[in-house]
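pls design
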């Protein structure tokens, strides 16, 4: 069943998209045809199952790729904030399928992602945080037909100079100082209880600004039972391997990318620096945006992150509708 709040939000969003495109589509058309009626602001608890099926059919697909070390379910509040306009598909944990072991330049991780995207049988909006955004960017360079567009949430776009430095760091053995791999080594993995884990992570700078519900989601989905206690679900060695194999090669030619791509940087981020937006200027449809928060802003401000995603994807989708109408 779908709540009235979601139904009314979907109706307003559809009216907004219809106004931009000059077309009366989606929920507005269903309403006019008598297949669906906008519920009153108060007193309504459920909608007909038929209406729910229409809403699910009309929602747009996002494939979300998580940051390194953070299973997708830890982004629960962000996903809920995107519903019902967008349905979010994702992998639980990238890099944990033995068929696709982490390798240099993340080539196997790209193959793992391609398998997921091909299984959806329709292009998606690719949204990724940190490592996940970089993965979508690389996938879009190789297989743009799998995407409507890509949004990178505090994910750097390494320049050719950056990649040269990464290559040298790998060869000379200081990649752990260049990436978070060094900080991951020796990290605590085991906890006696959820309460102990909560107190531990709440005291860490990386988690200190998390929305309380996002911290709870990390405790719930970032840990798993182990013996008499809990341990990290995201294998620490896999996390380190992903950092150490950060790409020093680009799989395609960035200026040739024709789908829209946006980098959304956290204003206080120390991961994505101003020069990381340079390549966007070479792309036909590259955009740079900023949100309040640090590198972890999708966890710190999930509602604002969802609003920015709806703004970007809604505008891009309106452009697609206009292009189809002109054709």
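designed seq:
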């Amino acid at each position: 069943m779908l709540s009235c709040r979601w139904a009314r939000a979907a109706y307003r969003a559809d009216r907004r998209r219809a106004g931009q495109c000059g077309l009366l589509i989606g929920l507005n058309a269903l309403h006019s045809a008598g297949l669906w009626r906008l519920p009153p602001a108060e007193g309504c608890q459920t909608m007909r199952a038929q209406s729910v099926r229409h809403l699910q059919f009309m929602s747009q697909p996002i494939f979300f790729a998580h940051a390194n070390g953070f299973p997708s379910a830890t982004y629960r509040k962000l996903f809920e904030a995107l519903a019902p306009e967008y349905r979010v598909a994702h992998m639980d944990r990238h890099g944990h399928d033995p068929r696709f072991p982490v390798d240099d330049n993340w080539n196997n991780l790209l193959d793992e992602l391609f398998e997921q995207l091909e299984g959806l049988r329709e292009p998606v909006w690719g949204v990724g945080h940190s490592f996940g955004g970089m993965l979508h960017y690389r996938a879009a360079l190789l297989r743009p037909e799998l995407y409507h567009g890509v949004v990178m949430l505090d994910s750097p776009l390494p320049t050719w100079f950056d990649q040269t430095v990464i290559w040298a760091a790998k060869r000379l053995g200081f990649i752990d100082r260049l990436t978070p791999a060094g900080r991951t080594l020796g990290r605590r993995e085991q906890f006696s209880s959820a309460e102990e884990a909560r107190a531990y992570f709440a005291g860490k700078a990386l988690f200190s600004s998390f929305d309380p519900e996002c911290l709870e989601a990390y405790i719930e989905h970032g840990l798993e039972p182990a013996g008499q206690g809990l341990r990290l679900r995201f294998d620490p060695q896999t996390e380190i391997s992903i950092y150490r194999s950060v790409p020093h090669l680009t799989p395609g030619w960035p200026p040739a990318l024709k789908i829209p791509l946006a980098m959304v940087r956290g204003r206080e981020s120390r991961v994505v620096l101003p020069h990381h937006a340079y390549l966007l200027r070479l792309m036909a449809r590259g955009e740079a945006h900023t949100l309040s928060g640090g590198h972890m802003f999708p966890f710190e401000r999930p509602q604002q992150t969802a609003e920015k995603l709806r703004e970007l994807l809604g505008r891009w989708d309106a452009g697609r509708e206009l292009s189809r109408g002109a054709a």
